[in-house]
Amino acid sequence: MGWRIGVDIGGTFTDVALVDEEGGEIRIAKVATTPEDFGRGVIEALGTALDENGVRADEVSLLAHATTIVTNALLEERGARTALVTTRGFRDVLELRRSARADLYDLFQDAPSVLVPRHARLEITERVDAQGEVVMPLAENEIDDIVAFVREHRIQAVAVALLFSFLNDSHERIVGQRLRAALPDVQVFLSSEILPEIREFERTSTTAVCAYVGPILASYLGRLQTAVEGMKLPRLHVMGSSGGIFDVAEALRMPAAAVESGPAAGVVAATLVARQLHRPDLISFDMGGTTAKASLVAGGEVTTTPEYEVGGDGNASRWLHGTGHPIRVPVIDLAEVSAGGGSIAWVDPGGALRVGPRSAGAVPGPVCYGRGGEQPTVTDANVVLGYLDRASLLGGALPIDAAAAEAAIERHVAAPLGLGIAEAAAGIVAVVENSMAAALRIVSVERGHDPREFALVAFGGAGPLHAARLAEELEIPEVIVPPASGAFSALGLVTSDIRRDWVKTLYLPLAEAAPERLAEIYGELEDAGRRMLAEAGVPEDRRVLQRAADLRYARQAYELTVPVETGTIGERALQAMADAFHEKHRTTYGHESRTEPVHLVNVRLGAIGRLTPLRIRQPGAEQGRAKRERTVTFRETGAVACPVFWRGALAGGQRVEGPAILEALDSTTVVPPGWVAETDADGFVAMRRSNRA
Amino acid sequence: MPDAPRPVLSTDPATFEVVKNALLSAAEEMKIVLAKTAYSPLLKVAGDYSCGIFDDRGQMVAQGPDLPIHLGSMPDAVKAVIAAHTRFQPGDVFIHNDPYFGGSHLPDINVIAPAFHERTLLGFTCVRAHWPDVGSATPGSYGAVTEIYGEGLRLPPVRLCTDGEMNPDVEAIIFANVRTPDERRGDLRAQIAANRRAEQRLQALARKYGAEALLAIMQEVLDYSETMMRKALAALPDGESSFEDFCDGDGVVEAGDTEDRPFTIRMRVDKKGDTLKVDFTGTDPQVPGPMNAPLSVSKSGVLCAVKMIADPHSLIPPNSGCWRAIEVTAPEGSVVNATLPSPVVYANHEMSHRTAEMVFGAMASFAPDNVMACSQGTSAVLTLGGVDYRTGERYVSYETIKGGFGARPNKDGINCVASTISNTMNTPIEVLEMSFPVRVERYEVLPDSGGAGRFRGGCGSRRVWRVLGNETRAAVCCERTKSPPFGVLGGKAGAPARISLVDPDGRETVLNSKGGFTAGPGSLIVFDVPGSGGYGPPSERDRKAIEADLRDGYVTPEAARRDYGL
Q1: Chain A residues with CB inside 8 Å of B38's CB?
Q2: Looking at the domain assignment, is residue B506 inside a domain?
Q3: Got the DSSP string for B71-107?
Q4: Is B229 inside a domain boundary?
Q5: What domains sit in chain A, N to C, each tagged with a CATH number?
Q6: What does the alpha-carbon distance between residue A662 and residue A650 come to, in Å, rounded to a whole number?
Q7: What is the residue-averaged pLDDT of chain B?
Q8: B7 has a pLDDT exceeding 60
């Protein structure tokens, strides 16, 4: 028993959350993100967090980290110099994709980007056929040419994806061995190791993504792990795209699974709200300095997609399928827009007020931070309107220069548009809220979910500032602001299970599967799972091994996953798998055909280390009164004197009528006119429209 | 982003938005059910189908993100069922594929079901799916025949299910007439399941908002698209223009001819205010081979192009309301408005590609900032059929290969991607070879196939198959072997299509653009799919762009010298 620590890097701040496993008490530390070397900020933040809270390294039971490095490298196209090796005749597989375009009618859509330029797409003579037989032996002498190319072009990573390697990986293994031996400083990823699955484009794309980000991730996590060991902290874990955590070795084996690590942490944190407040249906809204993300929690569970595209493009502020790089790993389903506190407001040549996509980021940051920022941002507008304190933020640690914010808005927005300063600031906020509402719509309305049936969980440094207005826009009846809302994503890191999944592709008729062979395969996977959980220090009673199998009717292209019972595998177990498949097919698609042959495509094993569930709290100290007042501008009232409460001083059950401002160390909650906020004993704030309350 | 213009709604805007999107996601869900349960690669991995939700009069209210080719003609297919049957019961399912009853071509099988909430008819759901075979003399049903009676099984709108149970008599007729009935049975079950899913979604909406409100919103969705489309058209420059283009042939070489005879399409576009008229007067009469299009097919191509021109950022939901402002007319008995018993199978995609491209060509003269050069302009179909040496079972394979997407006013075209009316996917090589006795030996970008211009056309592609084990009865259907994809405003044409058969000892025969042939074991079929046209004069191309193309081999040094003087 001890403290769990989560470290989350945002565009502006690096947050550390410490949670006492026993009592669920939360402590938070926040330092500026260090974009030139993210790891330095992490180490500083950890040091600060331990010092400030008097926690010793040996009292830490779990350390988990969300990294933006993979997603950023793909979005900004700043990955490693990557080469691709394919079967001769197929070098263009990444460019040919699946040949459908992203948007049916968009005349001006861009060609999707390709991670490997055409001159670095290399071919090798070889061929394995659809039965897994070698029909053209591997021309091993051509490997020398590949080695020479890699050296000459200073390639940092090579993806190898040969046809039918999921059936017969012998050629890929030889190419891999030879390249690894000849090029010890180059990372080599084999498609048969990354994703032994049919469909060459998706398999190649997943492998290429791993190669493109692998070197960057390795150097980052390597340095971080060393530093963490130096602090005598436990082994570092990384949040994966699907909402489970794994160790550094696993992250480096499969870099694509660290995509959207940070956003996943936020959504996992939202499930904590679902559990603790018994609100199973939530829309999570996470707004930081550079982006805003929305995701749906239905029935208390995160929603994931089995295939995801990373680094894609958008149209009318939404991401479009078919523009990014597909990866076949489960990823939490979320919508992201470039709208954060640091988003820069500007007037375009047509005289329209625009916000983003450029962001002032952590450096120089908003004008009001006084760190050299000159372009007005959303945060500056919030200061001008009085939503944020005009003197200081972060409990006094961050002085605010309100006059500079006003001057910047005057100069860059109000004057060119012929508006007053307050009017211009209100315009900036309205524009950014419009684009954030689009993200909320994508995960709810556009998928046919009625937002009126959900509660909005708002977090991130800027989420609670805008949440009530967004709820009005989407007619969401309730907003929940969790404790430690400014660093809430970091809490998701310490509440998710340790998880790793293994897949073994078989491709055979279920009727021909030998039970002994299946038992043997599950046995091997389970041994690997037990080893992983033991190494992670998960106690026996918290280890779970889940067997599953992917089945389909012989002529179908997509499988359904069914659970497989534990214990010995005999004919009865095979029959139970078939029955479970027919049943699932009927419930999923409305029909089944018991006479059709069933194919066993993959066997799966999930090894899970269950963490003890947390009940978090950051309770108020005493019945609070209005700490003070300041002038705040609302569209309903204009500028009014508005009470400002210190959130930590509000008692459980206390009601605050809007307009009001609730301040905390790491975030500010705006309660607009017509809303009422109520706190509970654990430090959650719930806001509802007062006419409905 | 400016706010979308809104018609006056009787429903509150939030409910309207939610229901509008719920209808779209119901159509999207149909698509998922179909892909995940269908048996033929053409459906399960290549996506050759469309799903739609229709009101009680057959107007399309929502289409999934499917194929624009079906935009104009799916409503006619649903209307044909309504006209033929008039009374509907829960559990009814109808089937038909008749191009002369609102179908497109015989392989496109429409499965249509009414959706009820209690006793109220909410509307219809339709899944149009391309079956890889629907009978006829040629596996794949892509032979160059001269009457529709030779094109395969023709089903007028008939009742397939009553009370949710398939009528065994109809079922028996269907499966006696197709080559691979087991596979088709799986596809048909998938189509029925997709319809059922949409009905469940409609019922859920009716329960939540009331059937009456749902029906009202469906009408408002149509009106909303109409309003949006009229505003978009009004924002375009007015103008009138004519355009002429020729097709390679119909696949039937006439007595006395040595090669397939080209024929001409003529189009006049008249854009004025918030309306647009397209007229095909002067187009050649229908031809003996299957290059004749029912008017609804020709119209689909026009509607697709107009949508891209007027709504280039894709803000208007595509549905029947969109098309109220657009009028398409054509002389009866011409290749773009065929009459019974003309064969039609090729025209479905080849003529709708053609009419779409011609709208861009015509409007280039008065709306140059909203058009692109001609794209690949063909669906480039290859069908294969025979007996799989590995299993002794019959097989039929159907693939379409993609070429260049046209160059635009401000950027290059796109290499090897579906354009205009098409958006089917390629069949992954690994799925293809596991399913059929072929080995793909090349699939690659074709250098120098994008038309030169200030902005270069997208490159086409080359795909090469080796036939394994037994001989295969093959057919191709392609356009633009003689009429290369045109450039606009000074841009050059893209490379034309080329199809050849190489026998095992290396002798190559160039094949006609359409029609059947036999390929022996060990022979190669080589398909070069066209690139697209360029936009603007090549002399204005940025030198850095030419150098980048040279480095990556999209353009060869010889072509750079020829086209750009470099």
Answers
A1: 556-557
A2: yes
A3: TTTHHHHHHHHHHHH----TT-EEEE--GGGT-SSTT
A4: no
A5: 3-73+219-258 (3.30.420.40), 79-209 (3.40.50), 262-339+432-493 (3.30.420), 498-609 (3.30.1490), 628-689 (no CATH)
A6: 9
A7: 94
A8: no
Residues B445, A96: C-beta atoms closer than 8 Å: yes
CA of A8 to nearest chain B CA: how many angstroms apart?
32
Q: Which of B224, B245, B280 is the last residue of a domain?
A: B224
Residue B251 in domain: no
ipTM of the complex: 0.94
**Residue pairs between chains A and B whose CB atoms are closer than 8 Å:** 190
Q: What SS3 class is residue A487?
A: helix
B532: nearest Cα among B428, B449, B447, B409: B449
Low-confidence stretches of chain A (pLDDT < 50) are: 314-319, 692-693
Short-list B359, B351, B408, B386, CA closest to B517? B386
Domain edge (last residue) among B206, B224, B242: B224
Tokens coding B303: 């509607």
Q: Is there a contact between A89 and B442 if contact means CB atoms under 8 Å apart?
A: yes
Strands A292-298 and A308-310: unpaired
Q: Which residue of B has its CA nearest to A473?
A: B14
pTM of the model: 0.91
Check if the beta carbon of residue B95 is closer than 8 Å to that of residue B110: yes
Summarised one tens digit per residue, pLDDT across range B181-235 is 999 999 999 999 999 999 999 999 999 899 999 999 999 999 999 999 999 999 9
What are the phi and psi torsion angles at A23 (to 5°)?
-95, -10
Distance from CA of A191 to the nearest CA of B (A): 14
Asked whether the beta carbons of residue B428 and residue A201 sit closer than 8 angstroms, the reply is yes
Contact B37 A556 (CB under 8 A): yes
Nearest to A457 by CA among A413, A497, A489, A417: A489
Minimum-distance CB partner of B186 among A127, A452, A553: A553
Mutate to test the interface with B, among A86, A107, A134 (most CBs of B within 10 A): A107
**Partner-chain contact A450 B431, CB within 8 Å:** no
Q: Is residue B156 part of a domain?
A: yes
Residue B14 pLDDT greater than 80, yes or no = no
Q: What is the pLDDT of residues A32-86, one digit of tens each?
A: 888 788 888 889 899 999 998 899 999 998 999 998 888 888 888 889 999 999 9
For residue B204 the two structure tokens come to: 């859920």
The number of distinct structural domains making up chain B is: 2
> Dihedral angle at the C-alpha atoms of B164, B166, B170, B172, nearest 10 degrees?
170
Of B313, B415, B443, the CB nearest to A316: B313
What's the domain range around B74? Answer: 13-224
Run of H or E including A40 = helix A38-53
Q: What is the pLDDT of residues A592-629, one digit of tens each?
A: 999 889 999 989 998 999 888 888 887 665 555 567 89
- Distance from A448 to chain B by nearest Cα, in Å? 4
Residues of A in contact with B418 (CB under 8 A): 99-101
Residue B467 and residue B389 in contact, taking contact as beta carbons nearer than 8 Å: no
Most B CBs within 10 Å, among A93, A94, A99, A450, to test the B interface: A99
CB-based contact A558 B26, cutoff 8 Å: no
